[in-house]
Each structure stands twice: as structure tokens, then as C-alpha cells.
């Protein structure tokens, strides 16, 4: 075990911080937001920096790193409230495809993602799923041999507004929450029967809300084996969860230091706010929560190579902790700022908003604690 | 950064587990696993069992006669021993005054005390706190005045755990009453020296480990001064800092949570297991998450290289570790139901059959007494409010 970054990891972190701090200033991001939080030139730059390949193996067109390298990048992105859908495409979609054991589609898509030339987005989430990966009510019916017809609704598909294709999960067998019977289909956003609504999120990222009505696709659009997509989705979501938690650590850390600087500067009653012990202690609590969240991130990263149940438990514990501690840190950051903290113009409220969307993505703290509670009940049996 | 576990450390854990299984007397484990304070005689016996194996000085380098184990091995050892119900080693000797003597003391002091600490022949009381100097050690008043080859000590110490069965006391004294922290020195005193009076303090669990110690013209030889005069504050800070990675009391938290889990599986409430009562399992899961976060912050501190970070990790661990002990205790007490209100006296060295406990499940005695005592966790070792101030001042620079 080694908690210190290796030379290469430190270089990745340093270069990411330099690039993001130079290019992602909060004050200058409105045009980007107006453009669907996407800039095609910058996307190419991210590819040049090698960011889309950090956690893919060399056979997959990547650079041989793993979840730790992704976490390093995501933490830095959290610090600057990065808006572009790196997480959706470079982590969730890429890792799902990589885990699909479909060598054909992997060869087509993964090197193209790494090069910044393909932007596949996983259209998997549904309004009722609330973090349950196996929840798929969208259906795919074989209308004629080799032809499939997809119907259903996919919600909060982050980055869906700039997808060049969707990877839609649909049920080809089984009941709504069965692990068996889920299949992945590559679908053209402009296909007949697709209604894609682009929506700006409260944190100024963008997503798509997708309605599929009898969308026809051929057999060659299937990724992986028919009905067997759960394992790939589970793997992709594991990577996405740990990446999201890493982003949250970056969000919390930056919010904390912005607040620290603010209370040293802001005067009330003739003295700096930082002289009040009650505020000092509040900030100490924020630091404790931040560092414990970071420790849970380490725990999650350590569990990425464990077997499925142990990994799921570690990820649930981490997501639950990060959701809870992140809300505390970001809410208290607003509180310590006072009135300016609730203005749209000032930055600190945006950290709270980003933390809010993180908390409710991929299962809220409550959802994950309930999963762990269920495991406790079984364990006691 | 990588989180692969060294296979040699896994093998070490197995080795420790086997040793503990084969050498820890079962009746000693049974006594310790009931959460009353450990018995000094058990501690002495266990220290000697360990010393025979060369394992009593877990945190000591080999040149002092210790194991030379890495911090992670010390952590594994403590975890295994604690879960099995071994009594703790003498913190005051092994983790506090021992390292100070071995680092800063004279050759004569090292020779006199090193082997005795390792074999459990000398146990120590920690004479730091005073009635008017708790978290604020700078304002202590006990004095040591040089008189020929002796110091003459006058004053009072308080919260001195287990001193009634100790052989020696290490005392922070003022050798220069004018200077504040620079006037503090550390001296060793024979507990049985004339003028030393010990008065028990019964804690709110109705148990006795705490004491007041009065020094009335107590003479101790000048060779019992540790290091130099006026450096006592430096040594005290050194010993407190050395143990920072252990300040979450992680093994104790782990064992108590395991106890709670066992309780929740067998205690019944309204016709079902407590674990199946609405909300109970979720609260248990929350505590487990807190425990894991502490484990991984502890691991980070253990693996940290020198000069790695300025994060006051000991303070972070102290705050949350002590709070978690109290939270787990609360749920244990709740799990006892009616039996939480019954008074089960500490049997000390009496046979359980002679104690005359009120009826109740076998796991009930000890839990409430310990829960009561553990209100002290957020106070001792520097109150949590002091820790928060340290964090704010040193790291956040507020």
C-alpha cells in the first residue's frame, strides 16, 4: 500500500490542475453553458492530454492506468466545477463498453473515445431506478428476425445533449429489476421514434431526457451478449461511482478553502470572521468530514479489485459517506459566507449545487445505507 | 498511490492470530471482553507472555529490545489482540514514558527501566493533569526544587489512571516557576516514596481506575530527571505526537461495533430480533461506515512518509474516534433494553458467581459501566474542543 502519488500520478494531477485552473474559470463559463456545456475544440484538447485513456488498458487503446488515475482527474475537475461530460463518456460509457466483452464494439468505440472522435453516451438511467443498476423498464422486442424495437424513457442522461450515439439499455427478458435479461443497443440519436430533449441541470451541466417509441435497430447494434449486459453495466457504474466520489472530494476541498479565505477576509463587528471560535470549530469539522470522505474514497479505490459483493458494499459505504459529508461541507460553506452564499452570481452556491446532484446520482446516501442495512440483517441471520 | 496489501503483512496477521489463540488465557479474555476496565494482574501476565516471545515492545525499535515492527504491523497486532480480548499493554510505559526515556534519557535510565518496562515489572502512572491544568497543561503548578542530589516535589496530579497498581509515576513539574512552558521538566518518581498519597476517584460507571496523587515534600533523585530541565513540554508533545496514528482507538471501536452487531442479532424487541426493528440496521450501517472511514484515515496516517503532510491527522482521528465510541456505546445501551438500567457491579478479581448480579443476559454486565466511563473519551487526551482549535490554528491557519 502507498497513499502517496507515484511520480506519474503526481504529473497527471499537476498537469490537470494547471489546465483546469487556466481554462475553467468560473467567471468565464457562461458561453460554454449556453453551448450545452460543451466545446468541440476543448474536447479535442482533453483527448490530446490523454484523459480519455487514463483508465483503459493498452489493448483497449488506453494508457494502462485504472480507477486511481480516473479519480485523480475527477478530483481536479471537482475543484473547478468542470462542466463537460468527461465522466459520462470517458468513465461511465467507456468502462461499460470495456466490460462488455464485445471485442468488435470495443475496437470500434474505445480507441475513438480515447482520440476524442466518438462520443457515445450510456442511456441507461430511468426515473424510477434511483440508483438500482438492474432497474430497466425500457423494452426491446424482436419484431422480426434480427430486428429489435425499443420503447421506454431514459432520464438524466448526462452528456446526452452532445452524444453522437446512445448506448440504450433495454429489457429483452425478465422482470423490471432482474439482473438477467438486459441488453445494450447502439442507437442513433436521430433515429425514427427517438425524442431527445436537452435539459440544463441545476449545476449547469446538460443532459438528455429521451423518449423511445418503437425505435428500430438491427442485431448488429447489440453490444455484448443478448440479455447479459448487467455485468458490464455494474462494472461501468462501479467506475462511475468511485469517479463521482472523487469529484465530490474535489468539490468539498475547494469549497472549504474558498470559505477559509473568505472568513479571513470578511469583517463583522470590527474583526475578521475567522477570529470567532465557533466558526473556527465549524471549519475544523468541515476539514474532518473532507478528510474522512477522502479516506472512504481510498477505501473504494482499494475495493475496485475485490469480488462483486465486497466491492458493492465498499462503494455503497463510500457513496453514503460522501453524500452526507459533502452536503455538510458545502452547506456550511454557504452558511459561513452569509447572504452572498445564496446568490447565483457568487461561486460558493454552485459548489452546493454540484454536491446536490452528486448526492442524488447513482443512488442517494439513504439508498446506499438501506442496502448496507439489508446486508446487516442478512449477516445477523 | 496503490492499495495492494503486502502478502507478508497478511501472513503476519495469521501468525499473530495463531499466537494469540494459543497463548491468551481464555479466562483472561473472558474478563477483558466484558467491558469493565482490564485488571492490572492480567496486563502484567499478558505482558510477560508477550515478552517471552519478544513481542511486548511492539512500538519499540529493536535496539531498545522492541520488535522493530512497521506501524502497519503494530496496527495489525493491536487489532488482533483487541478482538481476541487480550488486555492492552501499558500505554503509559510503552507508548509514553518508555520512548521518551529511550530517546532523551540518560544511559543509566535506559538501562534501569527499558528491560523492566518490556517485562511488565514496572508500570507507570501519568502525572500530567492537575485540578487547574487539564487541557491547559502550561498552567500546571506542581513544583520540583533542587536540594542536593534530590528534587523535592510538592503539588497535586489528577486523573492518574491505574497508578494505585503502578510502580512509578512520570510527572510534569515546574522547575522554574517564572517561565511558563520552558519551566516544565519531566521527572520520575517512585510511587511508594514517602509523601506520595493516592486517593481513588470513582468514575460514573462506579468503577475505579482514576486517582488523585498528592506530593508532599516527595524526594526523587536528580538522576530521575528525564533529559534536560525545562524540556518537559517538548517531551510531552513528542510522546503525544508519536501515537497520533493510533488516536482513533480504532481496535476498540471495531470490537465494540462487533459486540453491538452480536447484541442486535440476539436481543429481541416486540417479537422480533432487534436488527429487524425498523431503522436499527440502518443506524448500525451508519456506524459501520464511520468505522471504515476511521480505519482508512488511520491507514493513511500509518503509511505516511515523514514530512508527507501537515494535516494534524492525530487531532482528526481523536475527535471522530472518541465520538464514535460514544455513539456505539449509546446503541449498545439501547440494545440492552431494561437491563441497561440494572446496576451490575464491576467484579474486579472476584469470581462472577460471587458478585450477585441481577438477572439478565450474559452480555449485559460491563456495557453500561463502560458507556458511562467513555463519556471521558471526548475529554481525555486533549478535549475535542482543543483538538478543533488545533486543527483550525495549525492547518487552516485561522
Please, could you describe this protein's structure?
The complex is a heterodimer of chains A (381) and B (398). In chain A, 50% of the residues lie in helices and 16% in strands. Chain A is built from eleven helices and ten strands. In chain A, the strands form three sheets. In chain A, strands 1-4-5-8 form a four-stranded mixed sheet. Chain A has a four-stranded antiparallel sheet with strand order 2-3-7-6, with no helix packed on it. A two-stranded antiparallel ribbon of chain A has the order 9-10. Chain A is globular. In chain B, helix 5 packs antiparallel against helix 6 and helix 10 packs antiparallel against helix 11. Chain B has twelve helices and nine strands. The two termini of chain B are 31 Å apart. In chain B, the strands form three sheets. Chain B has a four-stranded antiparallel sheet with strand order 2-3-7-6, with no helix packed on it. Chain B has three domains: 83 residues, no CATH class; 107 residues, Butyryl-CoA Dehydrogenase, subunit A, domain 2, CATH 2.40.110; 153 residues, Butyryl-CoA Dehydrogenase, subunit A, domain 3. At the A-B interface, helix 7, helix 8, helix 9 and helix 11 of A face helix 8, helix 9, helix 10 and helix 12 of B.
Outline the secondary-structure elements.
The complex is a heterodimer of chains A (381) and B (398).
Chain A: H1 7-23, H2 30-34, H3 40-49, H4 67-79, H5 86-98, H6 103-114, E1 120-123, E2 139-144, E3 147-158, E4 165-171, E5 182-187, E6 194-200, E7 206-218, E8 222-223, H7 230-265, E9 267-268, E10 271-272, H8 277-303, H9 308-337, H10 348-360, H11 365-380
Parallel strand pairs in A: 1-4
Antiparallel strand pairs in A: 2-3, 3-7, 4-5, 5-8, 6-7, 9-10
Helix pairs in contact in A: 1-4, 4-7, 5-6, 5-7, 7-8, 7-9, 7-10, 8-9, 9-10, 9-11
Chain B: H1 7-23, H2 26-33, H3 40-53, H4 71-84, H5 91-104, H6 107-118, E1 124-127, E2 143-147, E3 150-158, E4 168-174, E5 184-190, E6 196-202, E7 208-221, H7 232-242, H8 250-266, E8 268-269, E9 272-273, H9 280-303, H10 313-336, H11 367-373, H12 384-395
Parallel strand pairs in B: 1-4
Antiparallel strand pairs in B: 2-3, 3-7, 4-5, 6-7, 8-9
Helix pairs in contact in B: 1-4, 4-8, 5-6, 5-7, 8-9, 8-10, 9-10, 10-11, 10-12
Amino acid at each position: 500500500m502507498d497513499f502517496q502519488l507515484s511520480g506519474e500520478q503526481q504529473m497527471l494531477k499537476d498537469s490537470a490542475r494547471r489546465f483546469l485552473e487556466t481554462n475553467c474559470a468560473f467567471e468565464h463559463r457562461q458561453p460554454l453553458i449556453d453551448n450545452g456545456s460543451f466545446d468541440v475544440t476543448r474536447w479535442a484538447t482533453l483527448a490530446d492530454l490523454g484523459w480519455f485513456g487514463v483508465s483503459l488498458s493498452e489493448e483497449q487503446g488506453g494508457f494502462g492506468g485504472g480507477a486511481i488515475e480516473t479519480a485523480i482527474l475527477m478530483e481536479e475537475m471537482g475543484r473547478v466545477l468542470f462542466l463537460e461530460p468527461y465522466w459520462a463518456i470517458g468513465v461511465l460509457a467507456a468502462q461499460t463498453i470495456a466490460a462488455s466483452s464485445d471485442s468488435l464494439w470495443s475496437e470500434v468505440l474505445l480507441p475513438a473515445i480515447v482520440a476524442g472522435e466518438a462520443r457515445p453516451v450510456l442511456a441507461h438511467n430511468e426515473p424510477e431506478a434511483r440508483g438500482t443498476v438492474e432497474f430497466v423498464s425500457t423494452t426491446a422486442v424482436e419484431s422480426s428476425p434480427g430486428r429489435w424495437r425499443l420503447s421506454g424513457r431514459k432520464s438524466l442522461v448526462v452528456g446526452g445533449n452532445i452524444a453522437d450515439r446512445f448506448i440504450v439499455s433495454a429489457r429483452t427478458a425478465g422482470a423490471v429489476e432482474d439482473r438477467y435479461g438486459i441488453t445494450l443497443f447502439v442507437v442513433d440519436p436521430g433515429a425514427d421514434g427517438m425524442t431527445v430533449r436537452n435539459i440544463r441541470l441545476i449545476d449547469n451541466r446538460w443532459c438528455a431526457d429521451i423518449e423511445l417509441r418503437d425505435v428500430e435497430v438491427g442485431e448488429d447494434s447489440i453490444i455484448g451478449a443478448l440479455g447479459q449486459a448487467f455485468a458490464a453495466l455494474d462494472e461501468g457504474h462501479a467506475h462511475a461511482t468511485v469517479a463521482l466520489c472523487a469529484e465530490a472530494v474535489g468539490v468539498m476541498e475547494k469549497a472549504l478553502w474558498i470559505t477559509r479565505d473568505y472568513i479571513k477576509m470578511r469583517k463583522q463587528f470590527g474583526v475578521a470572521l475567522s477570529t470567532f471560535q465557533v466558526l473556527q470549530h465549524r471549519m475544523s469539522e468541515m476539514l474532518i468530514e473532507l478528510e474522512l470522505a477522502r479516506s472512504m474514497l481510498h477505501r473504494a479505490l482499494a475495493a475496485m479489485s475485490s469480488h462483486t459483493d465486497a466491492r458493492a458494499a465498499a462503494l455503497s459505504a463510500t457513496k453514503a459517506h460522501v453524500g452526507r459529508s459533502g452536503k455538510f461541507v458545502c452547506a456550511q460553506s454557504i452558511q459561513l459566507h452569509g447572504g452572498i452564499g445564496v446568490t447565483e452570481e457568487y461561486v460558493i452556491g454552485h459548489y452546493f449545487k454540484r454536491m446536490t446532484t452528486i448526492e442524488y446520482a447513482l443512488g442517494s446516501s439513504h439508498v446506499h445505507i438501506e442496502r448496507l442495512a439489508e446486508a446487516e440483517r442478512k449477516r445477523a441471520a | 498511490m496503490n492499495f495492494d496489501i503486502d502478502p507478508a503483512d497478511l501472513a503476519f496477521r495469521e501468525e499473530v492470530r495463531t499466537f494469540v489463540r494459543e497463548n491468551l488465557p481464555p479466562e483472561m479474555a473472558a474478563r477483558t471482553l466484558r467491558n469493565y476496565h482490564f485488571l492490572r494482574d492480567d496486563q502484567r501476565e499478558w505482558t510477560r507472555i508477550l515478552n517471552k516471545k519478544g513481542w511486548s515492545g511492539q512500538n519499540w525499535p529493536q535496539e531498545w529490545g522492541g520488535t522493530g515492527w512497521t506501524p502497519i504491523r503494530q496496527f495489525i497486532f493491536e487489532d488482533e489482540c483487541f478482538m481476541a480480548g487480550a488486555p492492552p499493554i501499558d500505554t503509559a510505559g510503552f507508548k509514553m514514558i518508555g520512548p521518551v526515556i529511550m530517546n532523551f534519557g540518560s544511559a543509566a535510565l535506559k538501562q534501569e527501566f527499558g528491560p523492566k518496562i518490556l517485562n511488565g515489572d514496572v508500570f507507570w502512572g501519568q502525572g500530567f493533569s492537575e485540578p487547574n491544568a487539564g487541557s491547559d497543561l502550561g498552567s500546571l503548578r506542581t513544583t520540583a526544587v533542587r536540594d542536593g542530589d534530590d528534587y523535592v516535589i510538592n503539588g497535586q496530579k489528577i486523573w492518574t489512571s491505574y497508578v494505585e497498581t503502578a510502580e512509578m509515576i512520570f510527572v510534569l513539574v515546574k522547575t522554574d516557576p517564572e517561565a511558563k512552558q520552558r519551566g516544565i521538566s519531566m521527572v520520575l518518581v517512585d510511587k511508594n516514596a514517602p509523601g506520595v498519597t493516592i486517593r481513588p476517584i470513582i468514575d460514573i460507571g462506579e468503577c475505579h481506575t482514576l486517582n488523585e496523587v498528592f506530593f508532599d515534600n516527595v524526594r526523587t533523585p536528580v538522576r530521575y530527571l528525564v533529559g534536560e530541565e525545562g524540556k518537559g513540554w517538548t517531551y510531552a508533545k513528542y510522546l503525544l505526537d508519536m501515537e497520533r496514528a493510533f488516536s482513533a482507538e480504532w481496535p476498540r471501536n471495531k470490537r465494540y461495533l462487533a459486540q453491538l452487531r452480536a447484541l442486535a442479532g440476539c436481543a429481541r424487541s416486540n417479537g422480533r430480533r432487534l436488527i429487524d426493528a425498523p431503522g436499527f440496521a440502518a443506524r448500525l450501517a451508519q456506524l459501520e461506515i464511520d468505522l471504515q472511514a476511521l480505519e482508512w484515515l488511520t491507514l493513511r496516517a500509518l503509511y505516511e512518509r515523514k514530512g508527507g503532510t501537515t494535516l494534524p491527522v492525530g487531532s482528526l482521528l481523536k475527535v471522530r474516534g472518541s465520538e464514535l465510541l460514544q455513539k456505539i456505546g449509546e446503541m449498545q445501551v439501547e440494545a440492552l433494553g431494561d437491563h441497561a438500567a440494572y446496576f451490575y457491579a464491576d467484579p474486579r478479581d472476584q469470581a462472577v458467581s460471587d458478585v450477585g448480579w441481577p438477572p439478565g443476559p450474559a452480555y449485559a454486565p460491563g456495557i453500561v459501566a463502560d458507556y458511562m466511563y467513555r463519556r471521558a473519551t471526548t475529554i481525555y487526551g486533549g478535549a475535542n474542543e482543543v483538538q478543533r482549535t488545533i486543527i483550525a490554528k495549525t492547518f487552516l491557519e485561522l
